[in-house]
Amino acid sequence: MAKQGNASFEIPAEMRAIAEKSVEQARQAFDSFIAAAQAAASSADKQAAGARAGAQELSGLAVRFAERNIAASFEFAQRLVRAKDAAEVLALQADYAKSQMAALNDQAKALSSEAVKMAGQGDRK
Questions:
Q1: Which segments in the chain show pLDDT lower than 70?
Q2: Which of 43, 72, 57 is nearest to 113 (CA)?
Q3: Rounded to an integer, what distance in angstroms lies between the CA atom of residue 103 and that of residue 109?
């Protein structure tokens, strides 16, 4: 029995080849999985960056419109202060209302157009 305990155990060449092939296939599968995960993460990051940039552009446009509207309101207030009579006040009010409605309409169209453009860019990525 002592000789059997000292006898070396050899793995058959076929078993070794199968094991090596299995390990290599597992490595390839893992590498493919990692590459796909990295590509997905990169794509998600690009889409998020695009969305952030689009949102910043849209909010910047909204701020510029708000600044214009506030400036127009102050200009209107200055004209009202200088008005000579009620008729002039009414005329100034009518002009201001007309110009602001046109400006708000144009601004709404521009914001809507930007939002549609931003959504379209997100769909293409």
A1: 1-7, 121-125
A2: 57
A3: 10
Q: Which residue is listed with tokens 């094991």?
A: 19
Count CA atoms within 13 Å of residue 4 on its CB side: 1
pTM flag (> 0.70): no
Neighbouring residues of 19: CB distance < 8 A, sequence distance ≥ 6: 11
Long-range contacts of 8-13 (CB under 8 A, 24+ apart): none
Contact 12/90 with Cβ under 8 angstroms?
Answer: no
Whole-number pLDDT of residue 10: 80
Q: Are 92 and 79 in contact (CB under 8 A)?
A: yes
**pLDDT value of residue 5:** 53
For residues 39 and 116, give the distance between their C-alpha atoms in angstroms, rounded to a whole number: 27
Q: Find the angle CA(81)-CA(85)-CA(91) to the nearest 5 degrees.
A: 80
CA angle (71, 75, 80) in 5-degree steps: 145
